Amino acid sequence: MARSITLLLARLAIGATFLIHGWVKFTTMGISGVTALFEQIGVPLPGLAAPAVAVLEVVGGIALIVGAALPVFGVLLALDMVGAIFFVHLPNGFLADKGGIELPLVLGAACLALAFTGGGALAADGLWQRRKEAVAA
Fold first, then answer.
1. 9 near 64, Cβ under 8 Å?
2. Does residue 44 contact residue 84 with C-beta atoms inside 8 Å?
3. Sign, Cα dihedral of 123, 127, 132, 137
4. Contact 14, 114 (CB under 8 A)
5. Which residues, 6+ apart, have CB-to-CB distance to 32 below 8 Å?
6. Three-state DSSP class for 99?
7. Nearest 5°: CA angle at 76, between 71 and 80?
């Protein structure tokens, strides 16, 4: 049970971080502001990338929190962080206080860990799996 609680706490922290970052893209920056930023920093197809990233971060954050489709959203959010590293943070070095790669690196690694280890017994994925096994038995 300790493993499941630990994974739940990790999912809550990581998922909330993505959910809030995505929400800010809609509410504070606005998609037009995110598009302009993406255009300025050289993200390909900024008009498509900006809303896609915002939606991914909101929906993916919620998915991490509830533990649903973790292999899919974990990998997609990790790729989102690869983009953040290369397009935004890499020129600033490592440390987060200088805008470096530290935070997106940790978030990306955490997403991959959840994608490939699962969310534990308290995740929706785990509940659905147990329900399938009970029906099959």
1. no
2. no
3. positive
4. yes
5. none
6. coil
7. 150
Tell me how far apart the alpha carbons of residues 55 and 53 are, in angstroms, rounded to a whole number. Answer: 5
pLDDT of residue 133: 61
Please provide residue 118's backbone torsions phi and psi, each rounded to the nearest 5 degrees: 90, 170
Question: On the CB side of 126, how many CA atoms lie within 13 Å of its CA?
Answer: 18
- What is residue 67's predicted lDDT score, i.e. its pLDDT? 98
pTM above 0.90, yes or no: yes
Mean pLDDT for the chain overall = 95
CB 86 within 8 A of CB 41: no
Tokens representing 22?
Answer: 């995505």
| In contact, 70 and 63? CB cutoff 8 Å | yes
Distances (CA, A) of 58 to 43, 47, 61, 108, 137: 20, 18, 5, 15, 36
If you search the block for the tokens 């973790």, which residue do you land on? 70
Name residue, tokens 């255009």: 39
Give CA angle at 126 (124, 128), nearest 5°.
70
